[in-house]
Amino acid sequence: MDARQLVRDLLQGRAQVTPDLKVHLTARDGASLADKARQAYWWVVNNAVLSPYYDVRFGAAKRVGEGPGAVDLPQEYSYCSYILLPLLTLLARRRALLVGAPGRGKTSIAVLMGLLAGHSPDEMKRTVQHGHPQLTVSDLLGSPLPSDLIRAESADAIKVSWRSWIGMRVKVIDEYNRIPTKTQSALLSLLAEGYAEMFDQFVSTGDSAWFLTANDDQGGGTFQVIEALKDRIDVVVRCTSFNSRFLDALVERVESGHDPQELVPADVVFTPEELDRAAKEIRLVALPDDVRDRLGFFLGPLDFCRQASELFELMSKDTLHLGGKRLAAVCNESCPLDKGVHLCTQVESGVSVRAILTSIHFAKALAWFRGESEVSTDDLRELLPWILHDKLVPNSQSPFFDREDRQHLLFDRVAWIRRMFETSQAQFAAHAPIRTEVRRLRAVLEKGLDGVGADEVRRRMKEVLQQIETLVKKAELSGPVYEDLVLLKSIYSRYQNYLNWLTHARP
User: In whole angstroms, what is the distance from residue 128 CA to residue 498 CA?
Assistant: First the structure.
């Protein structure tokens, strides 16, 4: 290749698509797995999924117009969540729920992820598990051989013929909310524990990505989805509507008789070894202290409720739920916090540790996909609405939603969660000095107490006490302040326990 051809290739973009829908990687792209992941994304966007909705963006945007018709034009890379989130699910080996009206391509994009993972089109079509009211545990998992049932003298002599889909790298469960409750429990074991059991025989799912589909995520299926199963889903992907400007592409597909699923280029198909390596690289992406603190500042205070208990450690929404109360029963004028400012009033409950782990994992995956070495706040802003979509339930009776311009947030959870995150980040700067001091006190303790004398312990305890007094006297008891006070109290208690051991328990 001469110099002029190389320059032309570099200027033509990140990939070239030939007439037979094969992708040629340009010289600018290199050969890293992240480069390959981006090429897979662009191929899907340009050839397989007709969706012009670029709702995941980075950097500042240029606003054109005002009011509802205003358009924010990205000045850096932007992506379609309908394609990006399934791809990140595949690469990070997580679990995604695709929701949308029938015929929107939920199953198709899940199957497409299986093709990118190296499975054949026929294999994917045969192994998609279709939910229906008569689906039994045996239909889902497999069944013992009849001859073994007749001859076996004990359960461990029975050989179970497991369904082949269980060991696949990509698993697709279509319309999972039409699966009977008992069969859902078997599916839960696969999702939660990674194995299934029958007649004392076990089968492992291995490292894999899961894609479940439903026409909606609000209980509109044949069966109510058990909460434990819903809790195992990492991210919700909302299908986009068809844009009529792409009708010519549909006409071309009909006339050619070709399905894009049959034309996935080999250049964007991942081998099992590449998927394993990608998952490892994703885990190694750094999560800086500042970004970590911002994530905690948003998620941690959501569970706070100062009206839930008179006991300091029990001021959480879990206390309300265990007592059979909803947040609206106590989040009223009896609580002095400003309902338009504090986020705790908007949410029925906080988030689980599992949801926080998922947030960390997906944030690392997105940063890796973008070619970054560490997670940014932008990664969190764009991902958290999809991860927390089914995890956070709005308190519809909160005074925050009384304003007419906020009513739509009750049914558009993506916009609601994104607005909450942006509000928390605006408040972060005001709390930063306090959190910095608390972090310093914690770091001193985490260096260990080996060889630390009683006088030094008392000095440190005095520092912690002074910080507690400052917060109690000068700061309003809100979610962020409560989290800092809980941590400071735990630091003080650990020092006190150690001091007691030094002065009383030691010989």
Answer: 57
Phi, psi of 405 (to 5 degrees): -75, 0
What CATH architecture is 82-281? 3-Layer(aba) Sandwich (3.40)
The DSSP line for 278-296 is: HHHHHHTSB--HHHHHHHH
pLDDT mean for each 10 residues of the chain (507 residues): 43 46 46 92 90 89 85 89 96 95 90 95 93 92 76 71 92 94 92 84 90 75 86 92 84 84 90 96 96 94 92 93 90 88 93 94 97 96 95 92 91 94 93 91 94 94 95 92 95 95 73
Kindly state the tokens that stand for 71. Answer: 């358009």
Asked whether the beta carbons of 361 and 94 are under 8 A apart, the reply is yes
Whether domain 289-427 has CATH 2.40.10? no
d(C-alpha 61, C-alpha 42), whole Å: 21
Tell me if residue 374 falls in helix, strand or coil.
strand
Name residues whose C-beta falls within 8 Å of residue 228's C-beta, 6 or more positions apart in sequence. Answer: 188, 192
Burial of 302 from C-beta contacts in 10 A (0-12 / 13-18 / 19+): buried
From CA 493, how far away is CA 477, in angstroms rounded?
A: 20
How far is Cα 424 from Cα 409, in angstroms, rounded to an integer?
A: 16
Q: What pLDDT was estimated at residue 368?
A: 97
d(Cα 49, Cα 62) in Å, to the nearest integer? 27
Separation between Cα atoms, residue 381 and residue 295, nearest integer Å = 10
Alpha carbons within 13 angstroms on the beta-carbon side of residue 374 total 9
DSSP string computed for 44-113: IIIII-------EE-S-EEEESSGGG-EEEESS-EE-HHHHHHHHHHHHT-EEEEE-STTSSHHHHHHHH
Q: At what angle do helices 413-446 and 479-500 cross, to 10 degrees?
A: 20
Query: Of how many residues is the chain composed?
Result: 507
Task: Give me 207's structure tokens.
Answer: 């490292």
- The DSSP H or E segment spanning 146 is helix 146-151
| Token duo for residue 189 | 């074991």
Residue 211 near residue 113, CB atoms below 8 Å? yes
Beta carbons within 10 angstroms of residue 341's beta carbon: 12
* Locus of tokens 């800086």: 288
- Chain centroid to Cα 418, Å, comes to 14
CA–CA dist 55, 58 (Å, integer): 10
Task: Report the C-alpha gap between 264 and 47 in whole angstroms.
Answer: 9
Residue 49 and residue 326 in contact, taking contact as beta carbons nearer than 8 Å: no
* Cβ contact 325:316 at 8 Å: no
Distances (CA, A) of 75 to 54, 60, 61, 201, 498: 12, 6, 6, 55, 55
Q: How far apart are CA 71 and CA 3, in angstroms?
A: 40
The one-letter amino acid at 11: L
